């Protein structure tokens, strides 16, 4: 969801909250709300009310579309080389799959969730892990950082500026695959 849709969601949420709050107060018989409601829904203001409702309906449809449309994650790429013939690019998802394969090979790693971000000098990789209880995290984390950096460099030619390892959980139970 982009910044426009997030702003629209904020305004839509505020408008619907105010509407339903006023509706609740009107049901409870609070006189100032009943008077304001009668003034707003007066027959001479019908067009304004219909226009406001139409804007809310269009905004709601836009938010539904924004929530179900597929993301653009596959469009993000890291540039390897640009020469007179053309460009060579690697999708960030491909680098994430490579990192998953490298890190999953370590004993004691239950789950791997990598994230790759491009920077001007190459890429930064964050690896979130779920490990087994007996794992020596400092030693294994350093080895993971070293192997991820070397493998990504060898396979793609992209410079890895930083590999961050975050252990999300230490558990003996293998996570369920969905």
From TrEMBL:
Domain of life: Bacteria
Name recorded for this polypeptide: Cell envelope-related Asp23 family protein
Keyword annotations: Membrane, Transmembrane, Transmembrane helix
Family: Belongs to the asp23 family.
Parts of the chain that traverse the membrane: 7-28, 48-68
Database matches in NCBIfam families: anchor_AmaP
Pfam families, alphabetized: Asp23 (PF03780)
Entry-linked InterPro entries: Asp23
């Amino acid at each position: 969801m982009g910044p426009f849709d997030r702003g629209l969601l904020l305004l839509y949420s505020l408008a619907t909250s105010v509407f339903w709050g006023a509706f609740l107060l009107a049901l409870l018989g609070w006189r100032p709300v009943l008077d304001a409601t009668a003034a707003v829904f007066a027959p001479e203001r019908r067009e304004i009310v219909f226009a406001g409702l139409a804007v809310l309906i269009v905004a709601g449809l836009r938010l539904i579309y924004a929530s179900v449309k597929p993301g653009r994650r596959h469009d993000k790429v890291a540039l390897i080389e640009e020469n007179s013939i053309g460009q060579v690019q690697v999708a960030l998802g491909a680098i994430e799959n490579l990192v998953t394969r490298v890190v999953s090979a370590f004993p004691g790693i239950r789950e791997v969730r990598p994230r790759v971000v491009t920077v001007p000098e190459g890429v930064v990789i964050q690896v979130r892990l779920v490990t087994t209880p007996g794992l020596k995290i400092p030693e294994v984390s350093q080895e993971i950082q070293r192997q991820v950096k070397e493998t990504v460099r060898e396979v793609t030619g992209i410079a890895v500026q930083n590999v961050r390892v975050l252990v999300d959980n230490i558990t003996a139970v293998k996570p369920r695959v969905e």
